[in-house]
Recover the amino acids of this structure.
């Protein structure tokens, strides 16, 4: 297993649109395990392949407290089931140190494939529903800061760019 490097905003590679997975082989399984290890190490409750510079539609999520519920979503799609929305404070491993409230649909139905390529459908609730939408956004090149005012987004960008300069 291996820890993968996580891209940080405003890296333009976070804006790539990921391509569907068509081959379900051992290499995919190893990559998924590396993503899970990277997510737990960070630590985070979700990770999209885009964040580790692999532009394929692969997401891992574990919203449990004790790493007991690793989930894999390949080629995830969802429908919004009703008009209800919910607010949640969101963070992102690609926007480290910043947490802001985002409003999203509360009820969705997700269809995805597991690591073997078998399809499943799920109606996630609560944090899992938030996280599925956050991760699916990454696959489209979208970040939670895109839901904030441009003033907030610019401030976050400038602070992270400064950190990146100091680190370089
Ligand atoms: O670790 C994470 N926590 C989190 C909290 C609220 C809403 C979404 C998330 S996802 C984030 C990990 C991450 O950046 N996934 O892309
Ligand atoms: Ni994220």
């Amino acid at each position: 297993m291996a820890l993968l490097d996580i891209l940080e905003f405003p890296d333009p590679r976070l804006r790539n649109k990921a391509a569907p997975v068509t081959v379900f082989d051992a290499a995919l399984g190893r990559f998924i395990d590396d993503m899970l290890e990277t997510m737990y190490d960070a630590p985070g409750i979700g990770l999209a392949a885009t964040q580790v510079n692999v532009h394929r539609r692969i997401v891992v999520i574990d919203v449990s407290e004790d790493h007991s519920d690793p989930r894999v979503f390949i080629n995830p799609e969802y429908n919004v089931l009703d008009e209800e929305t919910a607010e949640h404070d969101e963070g992102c491993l690609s926007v480290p140190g910043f947490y802001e409230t985002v409003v999203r649909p509360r009820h969705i139905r997700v269809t995805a494939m597991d690591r073997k390529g078998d399809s499943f459908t799920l109606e996630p609730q609560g944090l899992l529903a938030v996280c599925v939408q956050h991760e699916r956004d990454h696959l489209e090149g979208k970040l939670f800061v895109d839901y904030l005012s441009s003033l907030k987004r610019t401030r976050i960008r400038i602070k992270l760019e400064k950190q990146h300069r100091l680190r370089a």
Summary: The chain has a mean pLDDT of 98. The first strand starts at residue 46 and ends at 48. The first helix runs from residue 26 to 41.
